[in-house]
Amino acid sequence: MKKYFLLLLIFTFIGCTDEDPFTGEENLNTIPEIGNAVFIQDNEIYYIEDLRNDVISKVEAPAGEKTDVRVNHAGTKIAYLNTDGTPIVIDRSGNIMETLSNFTNVKDYNWSADDQTIYMLIGNELKFHGNAMDVPSISLSPPGVPSNSMPRIFSLSISSENELMYVINKFDFTFGYGEVLIIKDKDGIKVNEAFINNFGTVSYCRYSTNDDISIAISEYGNNPDSDIDKVLVHEAGTFSLSTELEFNGNLIGPIYRSDISYMLHGGEKIRLRSFIDTDMFDYENDTFSPTSMDWK
Fold first, then answer.
1. How far apart are CA 205 and CA 25, in angstroms?
2. What is the CB-side half-sphere exposure of residue 281 using CA atoms within 13 A?
3. Is the Cβ–Cβ distance between 199 and 216 less than 8 Å?
4. Per-residue confidence at 225, pLDDT binned at 50, 70, 90?
5. Measured between alpha carbons, how far is 222 from 207 in angstroms, rounded to an integer?
6. Domain that residue 89 falls in
7. Is the dihedral of CA 38, 125, 171, 146 positive or negative?
8. Helix %, strand %, coil % for the chain, to 5?
């Protein structure tokens, strides 16, 4: 059995309290309202309408393999990828609204902040379904990523301000494979952050609804039977390290929101974590073990 650990780096300190953090169902009325989240378990899609009161419903989606689930900001549409990597858009009753059959082998995708567009990463290119978005172009060879390093983009996200964030996997003859995080706005590259991950890879990068950044990394420690899952978190408008916290847990789809100071994620359980003390969970649901999750 592998042991899982999470190292969370928070880039703007959230403060502290002299009181013990609340945990357990008896204190659920003290957590903020959490809703409009989706997850996949055993190839079934579920919608979280009200986490505090465990209002979680199964979506009667069509048969067929489902991966990489997403929900739009309005909570009216859900999307997933089929076996061809094609996005299927359904309503919350499971009725198919659209099959984006012109797009296959989608590696990453999401809705724009206004829900008018689904943007997709296919190969190393950004594609749109709906209105084209006015976002910066992808740079495959920014500083630190030579063109002969076989750059490959595998995760991409767009903020509400149309900033473009993506992760390039590259090969370095000194360090081996590693990743570079790029954030671009209309004025050009504003962040160029290298991750040397000889023992693992960046899993994905994601903007939250209020533009906080979550960067999920899976690494192998000295023990080959151990995984170390990190989430690098930058609050909206910041990109500098201020503190470092550590706690155990295997994470799926972690998303942090600074407006309520919570992270929601799947994995072995559905968990809601307060950043007051990350060793404690303010909510746990062990009925479900999501393998894909999204929250808006």
1. 31
2. 16
3. no
4. very low
5. 31
6. 3-295
7. negative
8. 5, 50, 45
Q: Give the DSSP H/E element, type plus range, for residue 126.
A: strand 125-130
Domain count across the chain: 1
State how far the alpha carbon of 196 is from the alpha carbons of 149, 171, 180, 210, in Å.
14, 10, 8, 28
Q: Which residues contact 237 (CB under 8 A, 6 or more apart)?
A: 211
Residue 252 belongs to domain with CATH number: 2.120.10.30
Q: Are 194 and 180 in contact (CB under 8 A)?
A: yes
Tokens, residue 160? 């509400």
Q: pTM of the entire structure?
A: 0.83
Tens-place pLDDT, residues 35-60 = 999 999 999 999 999 998 889 999 99
Residue with tokens 């989606």: 61
Q: What is the pLDDT of residues 111-151, one digit of tens each?
A: 999 999 999 999 999 999 999 999 999 998 888 787 777 88
Whole-angstrom Cα distance, residue 225 to residue 229? 13
Burial 12-39 (b: 16+ CB within 10 A, else e): beeeeeeeebbeeeeeeeebeebbbbbb
Query: Which residue's structure tokens are 């989608």?
Result: 106
Place of tokens 């059959």: 101
Specify the range with the lowest mean pLDDT, choosing from 95-104, 144-153, 216-225, 247-256.
Answer: 216-225
Distance between CA atoms of residues 186 and 162, nearest Å: 8
